[in-house]
Write a sequence for this structure.
């Protein structure tokens, strides 16, 4: 869902939730417990990276394809999002004027920009703020599915 929203930032106009802070808070509140639980589950399985990769390869092809597509689209969204924004980030409106933070070396600081530049930076910020958690959720799904496959293989090995 997050990667789809990130892709929608390329459509004309801004996303309706651009000014709201609660979607990002909800993403953070959900992301950290889910990602931590996935890592704990993998840690408790005691598997190394090679075993995790083999377990992923044992998953059904559709699951592998979906997870691969999510990761590839997340990486592509992040790369295209950071390439399009340049050195501008953190858009804000003060007294009806548009400002962004310029991260150019030796010229760091807040600068005033036009409305069109402000909208471009706003969309780029939304894109990265949605793509990064989307990619982390896809990584958590990969870890959970691989850990489940390892557990299933261990149970099958012990019972035989």
């Amino acid at each position: 869902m997050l990667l789809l929203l990130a892709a929608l930032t390329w459509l004309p106009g801004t996303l309706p939730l651009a000014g709201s802070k609660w979607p990002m808070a909800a993403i953070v509140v959900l992301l950290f417990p889910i990602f931590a639980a996935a890592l704990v589950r993998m840690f408790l399985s005691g598997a190394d990276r090679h075993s995790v990769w083999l377990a992923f390869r044992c998953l059904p092809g559709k699951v592998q394809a979906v997870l691969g597509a999510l990761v590839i689209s997340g990486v592509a969204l992040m790369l295209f999002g950071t390439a399009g924004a340049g050195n501008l980030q953190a858009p804000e409106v003060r007294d009806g004027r548009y400002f962004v933070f310029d991260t150019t070396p030796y010229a760091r600081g807040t600068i005033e920009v036009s409305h069109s530049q402000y909208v471009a930076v706003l969309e780029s910020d939304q894109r990265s703020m949605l793509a990064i958690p989307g990619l982390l959720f896809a990584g958590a799904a990969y870890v959970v599915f691989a850990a489940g496959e390892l557990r299933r293989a261990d149970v099958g090995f012990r019972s035989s």
Remarks:
- Helices lie at 2-8, 22-45, 49-57, 61-85, 115-159.
- The mean pLDDT is 80.
